[in-house]
Amino acid sequence: MSSWQRSLERYALDPASSIGPRVLTAAELREVRDKEEAFLRASGQCLTRLHDMIRVADYCVMLTDAHGVTIDYRIDRERRHDFRHAGLHIGSCWSESEEGTCGVASVLTDLAPITVHKTDHFRAAFTTLTCSAAPIFAPGGELIGVLDASAVQSPDGRDSQRLVYQLVRQSAALIEDGYFVHSTAQHWILFGHPNRHYVEAQPEWLIAFDECGNIVASNRPARDALPALREPRHIDEIFDATEMPLRDAARLDTIIALRLRATGAPLYARLRAPLRRTGRETGTARAAPASRRPG
Length: 295
Hints:
It contains eleven helices and eleven strands. By secondary structure, the protein is of the alpha+beta class. The protein has two domains: 3-182, GAF domain (Beta-Lactamase, 2-Layer Sandwich); 186-284, no CATH class.
């Protein structure tokens, strides 16, 4: 069943409705945001950076939780009224059951990035909007939020949104990796890249393992490249350290060369030792348990 069908038949929504989305009260929003403290901390700089890149084209940037509630956003002050009138405001709720087909709702349902352009939207209230959105996952594989870039006015052609769509996907991946590093900080973390020069500035693989060497989490690029990471593994089953033991590299704070046991391909990596965490910080992030491999 398509999103439009569900909107009509399952949720009995009115496509002609011009009413904006439900917006939480200040107290309700504060309660939701308090639960997402670690997520907000990991995403803040990426939201600002993405908005800086696309603000000239009159886009706003929104971050929602896993239920479609907007918990953070970036807009130009002079356009605040226009965005608010269109429903693009902090505390707005974008689930499919409430708003029908829209960018955030489609990501919540399909767990995949999408552009919902103008009349793709179910409700008449949103048919002037263009929205590009992408999912953000926790280390355990569960959805934790959606990143969305929306404009009130845009060209009619869907192709006009290709660049924004790619920027949203890239920014969502950066937020996901930032959240990964925060939520697995109590473990050893391997930052890896096939090119030695990108290890520090742009690591592609993130792998967390405990004091015994058991891998507890890995990011999506690492899992896509190494399907073995989807099952419980010891770090020594994945990598052969050609220069020195992995933990020695962390203590020396140096980049080392590794070899993938499955393929023999080289990987360059830097390791970070576990950080001490307060009880409050540990409770705010969703870390992957050692017994479960993220999918």
